[in-house]
Amino acid sequence: MNSNIEIKHIEKSKIDTVDFNNLPFGSVYSDHMLTCTFKDGKWQDAVVEPFAPISLDPSAKIFHYGQSIFEGMKAYKDADGNTLLFRPLDNCKRLNKSAERLVIPQIPEETFMNGLKALLKVDDAWIPTKEGSSLYIRPFMFASGNGFHASPADEYKFMICTAPSGAYFAGKVKVLIEEKYARAANGGVGFAKAGGNYAAQFYPTQLAIEKGYNQVIWTDDNTHEYIEEAGAMNIFIRINDTLITSPTNDRILDGITRKSIIQIAKDLGINVEVRKISVTEVIAAAKSGELKEMFGAGTAAVISPIAGFGFQENDYDLPELEKPYAALLKKTITDIQTNKAEDPYGWRVQL
Amino acid sequence: MNSNIEIKHIEKSKIDTVDFNNLPFGSVYSDHMLTCTFKDGKWQDAVVEPFAPISLDPSAKIFHYGQSIFEGMKAYKDADGNTLLFRPLDNCKRLNKSAERLVIPQIPEETFMNGLKALLKVDDAWIPTKEGSSLYIRPFMFASGNGFHASPADEYKFMICTAPSGAYFAGKVKVLIEEKYARAANGGVGFAKAGGNYAAQFYPTQLAIEKGYNQVIWTDDNTHEYIEEAGAMNIFIRINDTLITSPTNDRILDGITRKSIIQIAKDLGINVEVRKISVTEVIAAAKSGELKEMFGAGTAAVISPIAGFGFQENDYDLPELEKPYAALLKKTITDIQTNKAEDPYGWRVQL
Predict the structure, then answer these.
(1) Of the candidates A111, A131, A165, which is a domain's last residue?
(2) Which of A46, A127, B183, B282 has a CB 3.0–4.6 Å from the CB of A135, allowing a cystine?
(3) What is the DSSP string of B142-165?
């Protein structure tokens, strides 16, 4: 199904209005989008069409019951002008894991991949070539069916929009280890890229920003003793020469950047431990000088180095290293993503 | 502000197409809706306008980050044709509590109340008069501002739609005490009427339905030992002649029906205990015959009696009582709501 994607071209491209040398993140949208509707019990044909407003009944369940999920991906151009994706099928598989938990119909991998490729082909000119820039890709699904009863909808949209983007974060961030709020429950939806997970983070993040931090380090909701995520990213902590990250579970996102970093770090000879890491351990390592690095990992920022953190009214600075793992890992992964280095893993997909 | 609500009347009412004797719940919508937009840092003038689709950019944050909250209310007609609301200001205050947690701007109480009254006046003919029916009222707010960055939006909509409705549930329900999934984290958004809380419940509920139950009894996410909510309702448990309900906290909704029932039950001379109640205690009471009743409480169903529950592969039936508290409490509260009885509490608001 859906192997033939209908293309409805925009009448006049708006690409001339965009300054590709000064791109914000995720705020400028390409000419087209992919739309596929689930109704009458099945996915209808996907269409690439002009980027335009969506019209929904006020009773559409997306407005009331939060049935929405998304993915984040990037497309790059290499020096030869080829379009490159990074592990795109992993995004599709994770979208479907999120979909299962949120009772949204599974999107066939063929629809996802063919739709994505068709969209990127039509909007090829929108893929930035400038160093550090990329085409940010946002696949998302939501309940478009109607009703004020709290139950799954009978109609859904799967869409992909794209946004040529500069880098996500600038500079190192200061983070606050969270002791009161939490982003996910045991047996909840924390592992899914569900819209509601993100809205729930805004208030604690706002409180942290008011205290002078950029982001929150999320801890488990029961004891606040175990470190789980950093803002909307997975987290890595380097103690001496060992890189530690929390194991994934039903509260922690199975990040594609996270698992790529684990693999790359191991192959670079770095000792990686995937295990629970406690706040107590991190504080002790900070005090003894053994805490060398902390960084977030995610598609948007790739790697976001942390300059220091706050905990219980104390601030802890991380050292300025000459050769941090963060920089080495970021260069290694982005070189693979952008075809500046060999890809021994088969992660890079050329369109 | 917003004290003068602009009214844009529908050209032709669709009320003649509606069978008021066979109303589903929340699926038929009245002619008009209230819309108020927050932009440029402030709420713009509210308008009552024809119920019509909402047009949103695909990058609107509602589709991506789950910034959405809602309320549920009902309007009744009494025998004299007066329009009656039940504790409406409490809904407004709770909406604003939800808004704070989801970083949505506070809606002024004046806008909420004046807008609601203006809407109900215009759609007065839509308020059902049939016994058990009501006009279900759905105030909601969501992020209409755009951007693929996970941060609060810069534009929001506050809307009220209404739906003439029959009763929400028919008959007694069988429930399953949840041992794996959870609806709320400590320090999360469980107390708020956030859209994402509801989507997160669909999957566990679906599993329960597949096992032959109607709803899930939610327990705490850490131990699954304490009973928190019943489906999308608060829960009351009667052991001998004592009515027990969980205290509200950051995981449990501060239900308006819940607190009204606590007050009414006390004034009827029923012993009410607001305290944590464990699964162990409920099972023991079921086995000894001391467990007399369980029921959910919420705006839609008012009171939803539970016929029995499942726990760890065992099913427990509740006795058929001649004079259950559930029926007495439901009659008392709905008589107040519909002006069949005096309202010593000042809860009923006549338009």
Answers:
(1) A165
(2) A127
(3) EE--B-SSSS--S-EEEEEEEEEE
